[in-house]
Design a protein that fits this description.
Blueprint: H1 2-29, H2 31-65, H3 71-88, H4 92-101, H5 104-118, E1 119-121, E2 126-128
Helix pairs in contact: 1-2, 2-3, 2-4, 3-4, 3-5
Protein name: FxsA cytoplasmic membrane protein
Keywords: Membrane, Transmembrane, Transmembrane helix
InterPro entries: FxsA
């Protein structure tokens, strides 16, 4: 319930902060330069999204062709998608977060964190979650009649 409340506050506060910043920047540099800046970051973001998305998809295909599990690429894909959505959303905070998602080194660190802390390697596959502790009692036994 607490996470729902946090997400609700985030969804409610971000647009107000974005509108406030747009009005402040518009008051300083003018309306048309502000609109141009918002449209420019959206166009630049769309181009970067396309470039980064294709590069990640090509790495994914290359790893699959070599028989390597493309774990990083499978985590980076959604990060790139979120970054693109944030860049297409008008506003300066969302643009900063969107550009951060499209920085390959930062994206790799996020993917590494997710893989190390939230994915568990099972028998030839990955599972979401923490490792399950199994009740194993090692020892020897002998059957007596």
């Amino acid at each position: 319930m607490k996470s729902f409340r946090s997400i609700f506050l985030l969804v409610l506060l971000v647009p107000f902060i974005e509108i406030y910043l747009l009005l402040k920047v518009g008051g300083i540099i003018g309306a048309f330069p502000t609109i141009f800046l918002v449209v420019f970051t959206a166009a630049l973001g769309a181009g970067l999204l396309r470039q980064q998305g294709f590069a990640t998809f090509q790495r994914l295909q290359a790893n699959l062709a070599q028989g390597i599990v493309p774990a990083y690429e499978m985590i980076e894909g959604p990060i790139i998608l979120v970054g693109g959505i944030l860049l297409l959303t008008p506003g300066f905070i969302t643009d900063i977060l969107g550009f951060a998602c499209l920085i390959p080194q930062l994206r790799r660190k996020i993917a590494q964190y997710v893989i190390e802390n939230h994915l568990v390697q099972g028998e030839g596959h990955f599972q979401w979650g923490k490792p399950k502790e199994r009740d194993v009692l090692e020892g020897e036994f002998r059957k007596e009649d």
